[in-house]
Amino acid sequence: MHNRPVLVDFSEGVDRKVLKRITDRFCTLNQLRLDRARSSLTWRQQIVLDLLPLVFHLNHPALPGYHASDCPHGLDRYQPSDLAIHAAQRLARSFRPSSGRNTPGELTGLYLMGSPGSLGHSVASDLDVWVCHCNDLAPGRIAALHEKARRLSHWAADYGLELNLFVFSADDFRHGRQEAEVTGENCGSAQHYLLLDEFYRTAIHLGGRYPLWWLIPAEEEKRYSELTRFLQDNRFIRPDEYLDFGALPSIPVTEFLGAGIWQLYKGIDSPWKSLLKLLLIECYARDRRNGLLSGEFKKAVYNGDATVDSADPYVMLYRRLEQWLLSMEAPGRLDLVRRALYLKTGLPLTRAAETASRWQGRILQQLVFEWGWQRQILAELDARHEWRVETVTDLRRRVVSELTHSYRLLSRMARSDNVRSSISTADLNLLGRKLYAAFQRKAGKIEIINPGIAPSLAEENLSFWRRSPVAGHPGPEGWLLFRNLDSLADTFWQSPIRRAGSLVELVVWCQCNGLLSPVTRLNLRQETPDAETAALLTVKDLRGMVGFIRQYLGVPQPPSRDALMSPVHPETHLLLVNVGVDPQASLTERGLHKLSDQHDSLGFSGGRDNLVATIEQVTINSWREVSLQRYVTGDALVQCLKNLLAMAARDPASTPSIDVWCARGSHSQAITRRVRELVEDVMQQFFAGGTGPHPLRYLLRVDKRWFVLRFEGCEPGFVGLSTDEELMDYLARPQQDYTPVVPDRYALQQDPAFRAVCQACQPGVIQMFWQPSGRRIRFWVTDETGSLYGWSQPWAGGRRQALVPLMRFLENLAERRQLRQMAGAESPVAELICNEVIVQAGEARLERTPLAPESLALEGMELQAVGVQQGDGSLRFDLFCDEQEFSFQEYGERQMAAVAHHVRQGRRHGENYPVYLTDLHLPHDLDPQMWQQELQTCQYIWYRQQLQLALNRELGLT
After folding, report:
1. In a domain, 591, yes or no
2. Which is nearest to 261 in space by CA: 194, 313, 191?
3. Which residues are in the Adenylate cyclase class-I N-terminal domain (predicted)?
4. HSE-up of residue 722 (Cα within 13 Å, Cβ side)
């Protein structure tokens, strides 16, 4: 029904009757919208909407949300309706409306805004309500009002409604003083004027004062402050009658970028609504001549053209986008807008006859008729609950492309105009992190393809097929996912849902995207594997793996605000071992199993077989991202450990949970237990106490090789060593700081003596260890920084003859350091300790070996060596035997032979026994790139051993 236009001319004075007529028009439209909003709810949910004004007007203990006796209450100009009273009495029979008399007006307004009462409202829509209070409330009472709002939200959830209550004062909003931060529904500083634009064109007045904005004609918006002051100063309006949220002449350019980011953020969970709103922001930014929808809405009310259908917020939104996109000649974008609007309403026009008779169905049918859509399009959209992965993937690609297109355009406009965004840095970082977590592609990350596009992607029957090129199929080896695959022959004409390099990747992708449900039937189709270690899986294996993954990984939920405010860190690691691989496949095929009393799965049986062939690591981080990394080389386990340490080093205080699953097969339980123990041990050693990484060298043996894990700063790494000799050479290397050797629990099970030596290391202490072993004697030396070197040598004489040469050598080193200290060196002289290692019943213990200084005297020749750095960087030695010099300059390659000849000549009866260096001098520039004030003890020990081996080789001894 068309009303006559209302003209307000402030230059000729203001008629209070005209102001009342304007208010009445808004109130009439408001009541129609409220009725529509109420009709969109179920009978049970309507109680929430009916009670909201009353529970804020009264602070009644029997009503929902009651918090404290002094909680602010009393809604200006509100009189409880019959609906509100009946709703209250349904909940509390003792309630009487007379309890609301003389209620103080501490609340100034209550407004429902957004999609309720519009075409865009659906059963999944939430209710956003502004709760406005007086400016002079004490902070403690405002906090009580917030708590009441929180309790009411929980109460509404029991009725299946998402109720978001935003508490603030109109003055704070008008001056931008809200302290709210970005949360799931609160846009924080991301947008102010755009939010006000949406409020003015969608708000439904539930109680309290009316918006003062109603009384200022759209063409006078630029004089808003002047005219509102005129109305107030001249008492054309009462102070308790209207509430001022501020003017809205236009949207500042500074707000477009932050608002665009906010809509992208919302688009993660509500793509259709966000797509429409983001395109409106782009329209506002690019087409500044046509004004805002709120102004268009107000003009229609003043002109008498605003019907409840034509002024429907979503109809107006669509009309503006349609006009703009047609002028831009963008039919593809317009088609997506129409689909977004249709899906946002949630009305299936092809499935329910009563839908067409409802007001939403009637409006939507009219639009669909204008669009010229055939029934096929409607049937496709109405079958949203039946959409499959392929449809959702294609539609998601279009939606994400459109969202990012609009955002990039707004971002470019902001950069080209050198505009600083109004969004706060904290909010910008928060939104950016969630966008990164949702949309950013990166290696190994599992892509989520259904962010609110389809209700469910669950499949009834899924088939996982392992393809092998040798079977005659083109393409690389890998896994394919099919729907209802009856036979392998069907793969020639049926397109797979997805391809992946591993079965784990397919299962995790299915789980993250909701394809797997508890009733999904699983099938495995496999061709004969080509690899020697490949194994045929069973459906039981597959179900076991799905069950394991499902324990930790449902459909990923959005990250919390607290999580996004902190740097990302891993929360859960799942290690899936040997999926589709059997390290003993050659034996399994013949029905054989290798048995051994060596139970270490990393060095099984006498052949030291490594039973961990592959590891696939699924990581869930604090931003709810899921990623997969595969380790399939011979060093799979060590590579996995290195990466786990790298992730832990970024935040040592947060300890992720780690679980292990091994495919069913030979020794699967032992493998699971061994990998779990190893990971726990490594993480505990490097990050004990929630700090780290601690400086240490973790010694691990896998098959016949040694691995040493360690950190260089905050970067973990490892080195592989093929033999025991290589290991000793590596452990003897100098250390910048004290770095002990920590053996894995299984690494030295067969060598308890060596394990005891590693465990006995102490900072600032030089220790010599010895252990008789038949005709040989084993020695180890650990120095002040944890460097360690060990060797064995023939034992022909007694204990004193074996120990004294090494003790004298170490004492000579200590004496020289003592002299340098007396000369002003700062480093203290390390203590020297000698221990015997005694092994009994597989256990080692240490026993101190006392050696008095006078006992270190030993008859025989003195053999000294002095290192000389050559011009080419190599190190040569001049040897002195009983003060006779054998320089490399003089003897060259015959040097060792000459010294051996001299030793033989000096022996009285031609005995042939090993020779030992009693002293060694090394240059302080062993490393050409640095000068070492003090060389470490193990550096001297290592060079001493190499020289002794060369000399004794010349003597015919080893």
Report:
1. no
2. 191
3. 19-214
4. 0
Neighbouring residues of 735: CB distance < 8 A, sequence distance ≥ 6: 785, 786, 787, 936
- CB 338, CB 273: distance < 8 Å: no
Asked whether residue 196 is domain-assigned, the answer is yes
Tokens of 936: 């470490």
> Does residue 190 have a pLDDT over 60?
no
Residue 35, pLDDT score:
95
Of the candidates 249, 274, 247, the one whose C-alpha atom is nearest the C-alpha of residue 261 is 274
313 with 198, same domain? no
Domain span at 162: 10-248
Which residues neighbour 206 within 8 Å (Cβ) at sequence distance 6 or greater? 34, 52, 53, 110, 111, 112, 129
Look at residues 552, 579, 598 and tell me which one is the last residue of a structural domain: 552
What is the gyration radius of the CA atoms in the chain, in angstroms? 40
Chain centre distance of CA 608: 38
- CA-to-CA dists, residue 64 to 51, 150, 352, angstroms: 9, 11, 36
Using the predicted structure, report yes or no on whether residue 737 has a pLDDT greater than 60: yes
Same domain, 119 and 215: yes
What whole-number percentage of the chain has pLDDT above 90? 47
Model pLDDT for residues 73-132, shown as the tens digit of each residue: 999 989 998 889 998 988 888 787 764 456 678 999 999 999 999 999 988 888 999 999
Question: Residue 647 corresponds to which amino acid?
Answer: M
Count how many domains the chain has: 4
Structure token pair of residue 335: 């088609």
Of the pLDDT bands very low, low, confident and very high (cuts 50, 70, 90), residue 417 is low
Compute the distance between CA of residue 488 and CA of residue 525 in angstroms, rounded to an integer.
7
Alpha helices in 111-210 (DSSP H): 139-157, 170-174, 193-202
349 domain residue, yes or no: yes
- The two tokens of residue 161 are 């409604």
Same domain, 45 and 163: yes
Higher pLDDT among residues 9 and 539, named by residue: 539
DSSP assignment of 359-395, as one string? Answer: HHHHHHHHHHHHHT--HHHHHHHHTGGG--HHHHHHH
Q: In the predicted model, what is the mean pLDDT of residues 725-751?
A: 92
Residues 6+ apart with CB under 8 A from 767: 760, 761, 781, 782, 832, 833, 834, 835
Residues 518 and 417 in one domain: no
**DSSP characters over 665-687:** STTHHHHHHHHHHHHHHHHHHHH
Same domain membership, residue 536 and residue 466: yes
- The least confident of 146-155, 398-407, 423-432 is 423-432
**Segment 171-189 mean pLDDT:** 62
Give the confidence band of 53 by pLDDT, cuts at 50, 70, 90. very high
Pair (226, 266) in one structural domain? no
User: Is residue 186 pLDDT above 60, yes or no?
Assistant: no
Mean pLDDT of 723-750: 92
pTM (two decimals): 0.81
Residue finishing a domain among 535, 552, 569: 552
Contacts 24+ apart (CB under 8 A), 409-416: 409/282, 409/285, 409/286, 410/256, 410/257, 410/260, 410/281, 410/282, 410/285, 411/257, 411/260, 413/253, 413/256, 413/285, 414/253, 414/256, 414/257
Q: Is the peptide bond before 693 cis (omega within 30 degrees of 0)?
A: yes
Q: Are residues 80 and 177 in the same domain?
A: yes
What distances in angstroms separate CA 38 from CA 32, 81, 364, 752, 847, one per listed residue? 10, 14, 19, 79, 87
Distance CA(17)–CA(3), nearest Å, equals 16
**Quick one: average pLDDT of 792-809?**
83
Q: Does 833 fall in a domain? A: no
Q: Give me the amino acid identity at 602.
A: L
Spatial distance between the Cα atoms of 711 and 719, rounded to a whole number of angstroms? 11
Q: What is the pLDDT, as a whole number, of residue 582? A: 79
Encoded amino acid at 413, one letter: M
E strand map for 754-811: 765-773, 776-782, 788-794
327 lies in the same domain as 476: no
Helix (H) or strand (E) holding 246: none
